[in-house]
């Protein structure tokens, strides 16, 4: 794996030659062109499924949806997702027209005694239609209602790889709905830069050359820890709760592909 950039073998073949991509090839520029040019074929529109408005939710497609994904914005009609693997134990209609969904976690024999404490309860707003039923098996990150999933929630519940896979799947779905085929590697190259998911937040720099509170590449973080271990010093600590402390998914700035900001 390359410390910076993309490993040639990881990227694979150059689509124009069919041979392994050359070291130093500007694959980011190629990716931007491969995604940007077909983007003109996307239809700018918002429509209702089957001509019917579903509980106030517009299904956004075309360029607006692609922009939403690349900029990693929170969707207007955000779906409620499960935080745990388990079963929908009960769905209760509340007085204010909300639905209360109770999810029981998957438990081992040892975990039976405290399973009640680990149940998750979700109060669903009346404008969000439920798409689960009582007794249904559910996975962490799975939608309980209609709406789009917030990538930040996926990061918190399922981790980095799940966010990358979600963005890839959703972006491809938009292009393919308009009959546009794009190789996954081009979208993956952009996601790698936009999401900055290859970085960590240094909580405590200890005896390293890093600074507490800074964002660094994972490769630099690992090298710093290796160096201090060799010198018998205290290792660097990274913050495991990145999402709760700062926004770790950074939006694309203007039209400058690959240039990002961290808030």
From TrEMBL:
Q: What's a Pfam family in this record?
A: RNA_pol_Rpb1_5
Give the record's GO CC terms: DNA-directed RNA polymerase complex
Which reactions are catalysed by this chain? RNA(n) + a ribonucleoside 5'-triphosphate = RNA(n+1) + diphosphate
Q: Which GO terms describe its molecular function?
A: DNA binding; DNA-directed RNA polymerase activity
List, in alphabetical order, the GO biological process terms annotated in this UniProt record: DNA-templated transcription
Where would I find the RNA polymerase Rpb1 domain in this sequence?
A: 8-197
Q: Which UniProt keywords apply?
A: DNA-directed RNA polymerase, Nucleotidyltransferase, Transcription, Transferase
Q: Which InterPro entries match?
A: DNA-dir_RpoC_beta_prime, RNA_pol_Rpb1_5
PANTHER family in UniProt = DNA-DIRECTED RNA POLYMERASE, DNA-DIRECTED RNA POLYMERASE SUBUNIT BETA
Query: Protein name, please?
Result: DNA-directed RNA polymerase
Which species does this protein come from?
marine sediment metagenome
Give the classification, highest ranks: unclassified sequences, metagenomes, ecological metagenomes
């Amino acid at each position: 794996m390359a410390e910076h950039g993309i490993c040639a073998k990881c990227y694979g073949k150059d689509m124009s030659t069919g041979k392994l991509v050359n070291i130093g090839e500007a694959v980011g520029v190629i990716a931007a062109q491969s995604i940007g040019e077909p983007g003109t074929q996307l239809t700018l529109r918002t429509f209702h499924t089957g001509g019917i408005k579903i509980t106030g939710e517009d299904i956004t497609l075309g360029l607006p949806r692609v922009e939403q994904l690349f900029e990693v914005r929170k969707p207007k009609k955000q779906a409620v997702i499960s935080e745990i693997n388990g079963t929908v134990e009960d769905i209760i209609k509340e007085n204010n027209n909300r639905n209360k969904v109770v999810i029981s976690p998957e438990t081992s024999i040892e975990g039976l005694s405290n399973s009640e404490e680990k149940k998750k309860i979700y109060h669903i707003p009346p404008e969000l239609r439920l798409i689960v039923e009582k007794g249904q098996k559910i996975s962490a990150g799975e939608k309980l209602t209609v709406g789009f999933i917030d990538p930040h929630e996926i990061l918190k519940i399922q981790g980095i790889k799940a966010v990358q896979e979600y963005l890839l799947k959703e972006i491809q779905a938009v292009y393919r709905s308009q009959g546009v085929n794009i190789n996954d590697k081009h979208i993956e190259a952009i996601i790698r830069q936009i999401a900055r998911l290859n970085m960590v937040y240094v909580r405590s720099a200890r005896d390293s050359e890093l600074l507490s509170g800074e964002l660094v590449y994972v490769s630099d973080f690992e090298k710093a820890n290796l160096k201090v271990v060799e010198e018998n010093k205290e290792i660097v600590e990274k913050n495991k709760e990145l999402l709760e402390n700062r926004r770790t998914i950074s939006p694309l700035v203007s039209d400058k592909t690959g240039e990002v900001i961290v808030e």
